[in-house]
Amino acid sequence: MGGYSYGELGAIFAMQGFSGISLFSVLLLMALGLAIIFGQMGVINMAHGEFMAVGAYTTYLMSSLTESFFPAFLPYYFILSIALAFIVAGAMGYLAEYVLIRHLYSRPLDTLLATWGLSLIMQQSFRSIFGAREVSPTLPEWLLGAYPATDMIDIPINGLFVLGLTIVVTLGVFYLMFKSSWGLRVRATTQNRVMSGAVGINTKKIDRFTFALGCGIAGIAGAAFTTIASTGPTTGTLYIVDTFMVVVFGGAASLFGTIASAFSIAQAQSILEFFISGSMAKVFTLLVLVLILMFKPEGLFASKVRR
Amino acid sequence: MLDVANLKVSYGQSEVIHGLNFTAKKNETLAVMGRNGMGKTTLFKSLIGVLPLSGGSIHIDGTDISKCESYQRVENGVAYVPQGRMIFPNLTVQENIETGMGVSKLKAIPDDIYALFPVLHEMRHRKGGNLSGGQQQQLAIARALVTNPKVLLLDEPTEGIQPSIIKDIANVLNEIKKMRDITIIVSEQVLSFTMAVADRIIVIDKGNFIHEDLRDDVDTDKIKGYLSV
């Protein structure tokens, strides 16, 4: 790291750290949905990235509609489109579960193939509807710009907003999973599906809503994503691999693990990207990850009980 | 209360339960005895709906539940304590009990549950997986009881449990029968336990009932003969 003074290094770390936080937010939201779905029904949802894209396109659509019909509403539409992204992506997830995935529960490889097919269908639909070019919603004024913390450090406001959104969603998911009776049923089904049915839990209904919730959270991730990059038909695919990494590294059953691993992966990539090239940063992160998983195959945080 | 007619269960092509008929009355405890592999667990799994029937019917209070899924059978008043307990290892004791309360719409765990199983109250914040076998068995019974069942199914509740706790479990079952209007159906290999709880004993062998007797008339040597390997 020659040529930088300590002050400069500090500023670089802080600023890359903050841009890493935006990446962390999107990865975490994606991974939360993926981990909930995988934990609940053992389905690896290859189309999860496309549900994120659904959220992003919903935001874009809202922005275009607002611009052409209610320009006065422009500063506020973004909040509404986050909620709408959740609803649209969640509804599509509900439908996908009902039409496709529930028929394949006992066949994990088939669900993998089916959701991959679904992701291809969705990608092509995006291309047909919105075109192959990347699009960006017009962001409201208050999301733009940066807050100059010191002479050398600028903190982007959109990053802070996305971080705040992620914290709210994560807390909401925690509340749902660990404090509500719905969450109790989800956790029971996750641990023993047959026995959950035998204590009176309608596991199929739980599955459907869990899948919808996971996809809805991906939709929120998509809305957040529009503030840091533009959306194209293949946007989802770019993030799905990193998201899988986060879930595996964190330990599929642990929400705390998901948070910790999203944070470390996002920060490692973002800070390394400054000093070495982007792909080298990825190689380096992957190598470290593989090493750690060799010693802790169940991920960072696996809970310990008698079975 | 529970009315089973011509019940048949198959694994693939091979039928393992060959048309069983029995009824169990309210406030009756019925024990199904038999050696390993004779169909006790299969019978219980088909009653709760974990295994599908290949023929016959199950009625509870006149309602046909043979086509229902497990959760619907629980709603109709069947509760199940499986062999090997099958508590949720990563949920706390309290949460384990609460999983059964969705059906009965209870808001809080009733006091009589903790009165029956004081050790569960003591351990309510521990994870289920960290309890001993006997404690897990009590937890599984508590979880079944909060669904307010009409029929309680217990599949080998004494399996792998230390003798002093076996006596406790027998006392608990008798206590439950006194407290509630409930039918208890229990499968067993331990004759002393059966004699302590059951009103009627049926012996199952290769998927058929081969012997039935009221407890008071039971010839223990004869039953022992059926159970010996």
TrEMBL record, chain A:
Membrane topology of this protein: Multi-pass membrane protein
Superkingdom of origin: Bacteria
Q: Please indicate if the UniProt record lists Nucleus as a keyword.
A: no
What keywords would UniProt list here?
Amino-acid transport, Cell membrane, Membrane, Transmembrane, Transmembrane helix, Transport
Q: Which CDD domains match?
A: TM_PBP1_LivH_like (cd06582)
Compartment(s) of residence: Cell inner membrane
* Name this polypeptide is given: Urea ABC transporter permease subunit UrtB
TrEMBL record, chain B:
What keywords would UniProt list here?
Amino-acid transport, ATP-binding, Nucleotide-binding, Transport
Listed InterPro entries = AAA+_ATPase, ABC_transporter-like_ATP-bd, ABC_transptr_urea_ATP-bd_UrtE, BCAA_Transport_ATP-bd_LivF, P-loop_NTPase
Q: Which domain of life is it from?
A: Bacteria
CDD domains for the chain: ABC_TM1139_LivF_branched (cd03224)
Q: Which Gene3D superfamilies match?
A: P-loop containing nucleotide triphosphate hydrolases
The GO terms describing molecular function are: ATP binding
Per the database record, which ranges form the ABC transporter domain?
A: 2-227
ATP-binding as a keyword of this entry, yes or no, is: yes
Q: Which family, according to UniProt? A: Belongs to the ABC transporter superfamily.
Q: How is this protein named in the record?
A: Urea ABC transporter ATP-binding subunit UrtE
Recorded source organism is Marinomonas sargassi
Taxonomic lineage of the native organism: Bacteria, Pseudomonadati, Pseudomonadota, Gammaproteobacteria, Oceanospirillales
Point out the gene that encodes the protein: urtE
